[in-house]
Amino acid sequence: MALHRAPRRVGVVGYGRLGQSLVSQLLTQGPELGLELVFVWNRDPSRMAGSVPRSLQLQNLAAVVERHPDLVVEVAHPKIIHESGAQILRHANLLVGSPSALADQATERQLREASHCWGHAVFVARGALWGIEDIARLDAAGGLQSLRVTMATHPDGFRLEGPLAAVHSTRPRTVLYEGPVRGLCPFAPRNSNTMAAAALAAPSLGFDHVIAVLVADLSLTDMHVVDVELTGPPGPTGRSFAVRTHRENPAEPGAVTGSATITTFWRSLLGCCRLPSTPGIHLC
Ligand SMILES: NC(=O)c1ccc[n+]([C@@H]2O[C@H](COP(=O)([O-])OP(=O)(O)OC[C@H]3O[C@@H](n4cnc5c(N)ncnc54)[C@H](O)[C@@H]3O)[C@@H](O)[C@H]2O)c1
Q1: Which atom of ligand 1 approaches the CA of 128 most closely?
Q2: 30 CA to centre of ligand 1 in angstroms
Q3: DSSP-H helix ranges across 71-186
Q4: What's 7's DSSP letter?
């Protein structure tokens, strides 16, 4: 069943694992769902040759406006959000696939300002974060005291920068980072998106108080594991409400994105196409 009478015009920025999957689904299932792919942009355009129709290949990201998109989906790198996120919001709603970009306070402020100025929504894909609605509800009710997200995988699945890139994980399990999400994002921009989504779901704690733990585990050659632990304040008996979830997601060796997360992104795309263009940041 179509989502809207007029097809929603969707552009995709990034043509890696996630981008290729979304583009393929938009081309095959989009028309019956009321979605029209209007462009694909990739830093290296040659990667699109043979699989993306030439008419849909966008050579220059600044030319987004010419394709009149309703929604632009970023599945490339947080840098795209830093450099072009606010500009894209001038023309369309934006689905952010790399929310670690929002750990940068200037970027978050620019996106919020552009969203309100142009009346377009910033959607943040939940990605690998299980239970995001429950976290957001507990936070909104004032019941969230602590939130800790641990992401573990084989070191080949990490794309680390700065001091984290210099750490060699020779032990079976090495904790590479443990601390506020904001401190991790610049050094693991492509492996901190789950933690960033948690920080956005829990604004009472936010990027400075949600705790991120990044673990290199030599046994996890084909899997990404995300553990979420949260507590509420102590009740009258002194005991606290507590939840723990453990998500094991099969992943191709060395991949940044696990298989189940690819499915999740397609659902996020469909979900945000059903939502109104309300200014502000919305999880989907
Ligand atoms: N929210 C989440 O939980 C979650 C989960 C998985 C992936 N992601 C993020 O989604 C994005 C895409 O993931 P993927 O698995 O498709 O990655 P990928 O490595 O397969 O593809 C990334 C694509 O973006 C391009 N790219 C890389 N760096 C770039 C840059 N600086 N500027 C412009 N383009 C650049 C590459 O050429 C490639 O086409 C990444 O940022 C990743 O961290 C988020």
Answers
A1: 3
A2: 22
A3: 78-89, 105-118, 132-140, 162-165, 181-184
A4: P
CA angle 177, 16, 210 (to 5 degrees): 25
Q: Which residues line ligand 1 (CB under 6 A)?
A: 14-19, 42-44, 75-77, 79-80, 97-99, 125, 127-128, 190, 193-194, 197, 256-257, 261
CA of 97 from ligand 1 middle (Å) equals 8
Q: Given the CA of residue 78, which atom of ligand 1 is nearest to it?
A: 41
From ligand 1's centre to the CA of 79, what distance in Å? 10
Q: Please give the number of the atom of ligand 1 that sits closest to the Cα of 190.
A: 43
Topology, domain 8-127+261-283: Rossmann fold (3.40.50)
Task: Tell me the fold of 132-256.
Answer: Dihydrodipicolinate Reductase; domain 2 (3.30.360)
pLDDT reported for residue 157: 87
Query: Rounded to an integer, what distance in angstroms lies between the CA atom of residue 38 and that of residue 32?
Result: 15
Burial of 59 (0-12, 13-18, 19+ CB in 10 A): exposed
* Mean pLDDT of successive 10-residue stretches along the chain, which has 284 residues: 68 96 96 96 96 96 96 97 97 97 98 98 95 96 97 92 88 95 97 97 98 96 95 91 95 79 93 91 96
The residue extents of the domains of the chain are 8-127+261-283, 132-256
pLDDT of residue 196: 98
